[in-house]
Amino acid sequence: MEASATAASEFIELWKNSINCDTQALIEAKEKCEHILNRVELAGRMIHIETTSEAFAENEIDANLLSDDRWKRLSWIFGPDAVRNFIGIDARGICLLLGFGEEWLDRKLASGTRFKLAIFPKTSVDGTLATWDGVENVVQKYYPEVWGKVENHMPEIRSTDFTEIQRLAGYDMQAVNLVGRRGRAYDVDGESDSEHYISLQRLQRREGTLVQVRQFLWDEIGIKGLFVGDGRTQNDAGEQGPREFLARNLPINDIEGHIVIEVNPSRCLVWPCIAL
Description:
The chain is an alpha+beta fold. It is built from eleven helices and eight strands. The protein folds into two domains: 2-126 and 251-274, no CATH class; 131-221, no CATH class. The strands form two sheets. A four-stranded antiparallel beta sheet has the order 1-3-7-8.
């Protein structure tokens, strides 16, 4: 796996050097990126962690997961088509390319959230393309406790525009998701200050209506209102981005050939590489 780790490290250095470079250098950087990806297909994740989280501290990095939320069984990752498009854009540009809304990103930065870019061989993580079929497969596999309730409503969820489900809910589903869990990243009981928030634990206890199941998909897995099930990210303007995948929320150190660096999406800065 040494070659894979080298590929991830080579890409990170290439990416950092491609930011704000001239046209010819950018063309050459993109060609070098293709050579790397032809050798080893790379994937990754932009990890965002609250500064209050112990997982961000360097002495706790071994415990860090793909998703900072310890209760999450799944995490969102990007693939090689995203990686090749990182060349020439800064950390903020990467976040926007991956579908992080500008408002969400600025709010997270203002609250002290910090970001890490993880790059690793695609083969090191078993990712499922995030289509509606893929969502059904991972929910059935990783959330068997509630699969029956979810399965009952998947045909309607897939065929109904989210705005209609939002209308049926009678409350702001995004606002509920933003309330989050009382225990935040280290939550264990799935409780929230919003009665409408639907964690795994709450869905197990509740009826499992259409709205409750759709809220569960958002709150537990991160399937937002913009999700259309075509396997690609989508930004606030509805523009399609690179492919996205769902994978088990693994400890970073269990992913062979990975490289992680801390990045700043607010000021086009990159900190020294932290190779784990």
